[in-house]
Amino acid sequence: MRPRLLLLTPPFVQTNTPYPATMHLTGFLRSRGFDVFQRDLSIKVVRDILIDYGGDEAEEILELLSSPQVPDDDKVEASRLIDELALEIRDQVDARFGFSRYAERISAQAADFGAIEKLIRRRGVMDRPLARHLKEAIAETRPTVIGVTCPFPGTLVGAFKIAKYVRRHHPDIRLVLGGGFVSTELREMTDKRPYTYFDDFLFDEGYAPMLKLLGEDATVKDMPRFVAPCYDGIDWDEYFDVVETENPMHRLWSVGRWLKLQMARGCYWHKCAFCDVILPYINCFEQPKAAEIVDAMEDGCGYHFVDEAMPPALIRQVSEEILRRGLQVEWWGNVRFDLSFTPGLCQLMSKAGCIAVTGGLECADDRLLKLMTKGITLSSARKALRAFHRAGIMVHAYLMYGFPTETEAEAYGALEFVRGLFKADLVQSAFWHRFALTVHSPIARDPGRFGIEIADAADRRVTQRAKHTLFCRNEIPFIEPGAPDWDAIGEVLNLALYNFLEGRGLDKTPADWQRLVRRRKRATGK
Predict the structure, then answer these.
(1) Exposed e or buried b for every residue in 242-253, given b needs 16+ CB within 10 A?
(2) Distance between CA atoms of 160 and 375, rounded to whole angstroms?
(3) Measured distance CA(368)–CA(371) in Å, rounded
(4) Do 469 and 113 form a contact (C-beta atoms < 8 A)?
């Protein structure tokens, strides 16, 4: 008898639209003849928690936030109220609770599984609703295999709580854990304790590994170039918006029901020194035919392409196919700000329904862009941004500070460059990320070339633990002699950017923001 599968998304991920992992795997496995079911336990559990603690008022607010017809001003107020409730739950009931995460910082502290196991065993706000929905899902689908996706650190505890429940009540069901967190953080795992919860851990895309686990011969080469997602088992009425800002670009992550697709697997550039370029999700690049992608866009109206970077040539073909079919759709996704995005291509994208793009400007400094092998310059990026602007396509820029060898002057120079982009309306949204050294990056393989040293004491602890009890390892502590005070600089960068997002402070210099941060510290005594 062939196995029956139940694929689960654990608490907690975004509330406005489902995370795509189970949808794509469900579509793929059903195309191979398997009985597959899916449930998004994340949205079910977060709704139950809010209603359990907020009562009828919380339930009424969630109807408001679930409806696309509700006026924007009403959604802003409703979002404020539901956010206040979430903060009350965090402060008074469970300090680890958040809308889209739970104990998200635990993986940075827990190469040893013991710290995570304490949280798995400790009762929290998710336990009762999680058990309730698990019981219901298993009764409805009668699975012989349960697969759980763990995309982020904030879903780790929930994923293992699912396994704990299933082990106790259905010990005959086979349990499998996969997802982005597993593929990046658990590749070097030697600790045996996680295997008391899950029978198998799957790395990289789950298509071929899952087929092998289910007893079918499969290789990566056998996999289709494009997989259309299946949304059976997803209740769209359960999802709700959280309107936290008036910025229309920044809202896309928390407002709207975006169906998530992927134009191409991997990254067509895969050279950035800070990226996990040795892992398959980056370096195994393959793209399908445009028609296959647009076939999956026939039944909906809003799409978020979750590629590492959408290939410009394929974007052109997809845009032309959308226009040829006369589809009325909106879509957005991640790109590289290179010269391939000409005014003509951007106009074509806009006509085909592209409303926004996201992309990395990183340190916004030409020396550092060259050092990290980003493959763009500030000049080429500005030309691409100008082309998007003229086509009416919104832009979000990913920014980085604290990159090895970066100076304080370069960081504030980047702030000036970004201010100029906001002032010219070439970007509408952005976010600063603090550089983190990851074990799968080119920098980790040649740290001396970037002026840093792996922190020996921490590395020795990991090495000693690795033989028997290593759980997760991705971010590596490092030492950079003479590095600036990135904590202090980060405060300035983030304060300035917060104001830029709201259209304020576009005439202020970095020195102005530094003075403002110092005044705030004196006023608060910090």
Answers:
(1) bbebebebbbbb
(2) 40
(3) 5
(4) yes
Cβ partners under 8 Å of residue 487, min gap 6: none
Strands 97-98, 35-40: parallel, antiparallel or unpaired by DSSP?
A: unpaired
176-190: average pLDDT: 95
Contact between 157 and 102 under an 8 Å Cβ cutoff? The reply is: yes
* Helical spans, DSSP H, in 151-206: 156-169, 180-185
List the one residue out of 450, 501, 496 whose CA is nearest residue 476.
450
The two structure tokens encoding residue 314: 């394929």
CA atoms in the 13 A half-sphere facing the CB of 369: 20
Confidence check: pLDDT of 457 > 70: no
Distance in angstroms (rounded) separating the CA atoms of residues 334 and 398: 10
Residue with tokens 């003849």, as numbered in its chain = 33
Q: What's the CA angle centered on 441, arms 119 and 448, to 5 degrees?
A: 115
Mean pLDDT of 475-501: 95
Model confidence pTM above 0.90: yes
Q: CA–CA distance from 123 to each of 55, 118, 120, 224 (Å)?
A: 21, 10, 8, 42
* 7 close to 179: Cβ distance less than 8 angstroms: no
Residue entry with tokens 């398997």: 34
- Rounded CA-CA distance 101/122 in Å is 17
Residue 352's pLDDT band, with cuts at 50, 70 and 90, is: very high
Q: Which residue has the tokens 């407002």?
A: 255
**Residue 92: partners with Cβ closer than 8 Å, 6 or more residues away:** none
Q: Could you tell me which residues come within 8 angstroms of residue 93 by beta carbon, excluding any fewer than 6 positions away? A: 53, 125
Q: CA-CA-CA-CA torsion for 351, 65, 150, 25, nearest 10 degrees? A: -50
At residue 128, the pLDDT reads 97
DSSP string, 395-426: EEEEEEE--TT--HHHHHHHHHHHHHHHHTTS
Unique residue bearing structure tokens 């295999």 = 145
> Is residue 359 within a helix (H) or strand (E), and if so which, with residue range?
strand 354-362
Mean residue pLDDT of the chain comes to 93
- The CA distance from 449 to 404, in Å, is 10
In sequence order, the β-bridge partners of residue 356 are 332, 394
What span, in angstroms and rounded, lies between the C-alpha atoms of 268 and 324?
Answer: 26
Measured distance CA(120)–CA(414) in Å, rounded? 42
Q: Which residues pair with 8 in a beta bridge?
A: 39, 148
Question: Residue 353 above 90 pLDDT?
Answer: yes
Higher pLDDT, 242 or 112: 242
What's the first-to-final CA gap in the chain, in angstroms?
65
CA distance 48 to 270: 41
**pLDDT per residue over 375-398, tens digit each?**
999 999 999 999 999 999 999 999
CA 223 to each of CA 205, 209, 305: distance values in angstroms, whole numbers, following the listed order: 10, 11, 20
